[in-house]
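Usage

Read records sequentially. Each one opens with the input sequence:
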Amino acid sequence: MGCVGILVPQAVWVTDLLINLAGYSLTGMTDYMFDSTHSLFLRLLSLFHGWLPFLLLYLVWKIGYDRRALVSWTGLFLAVMLICFFLMPPPPRIRA
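and closes with the structure output:
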């Protein structure tokens, strides 16, 4: 289930980081990795995004893919989104 839900966003993060290393920005998602105002600890901690998609792909290759994962992840996603939408407080208004 984790691979189904997180593989694409993690792969985009890795791609953005690699493009950022080349001096460009794809989505701006990893710009904070090169911003010295953020602590080194935070930036090093965020490197888990770099190895996680490869670990997930390896685990799916080694253990196998359960066809129920997509349906299960979709159900979990919908439940979390509905809980967040109806039970969480709204974001603060930003005044321009």
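Summary fields computed downstream for this record:
- The first helix runs from residue 2 to 21.
- The mean pLDDT is 90.
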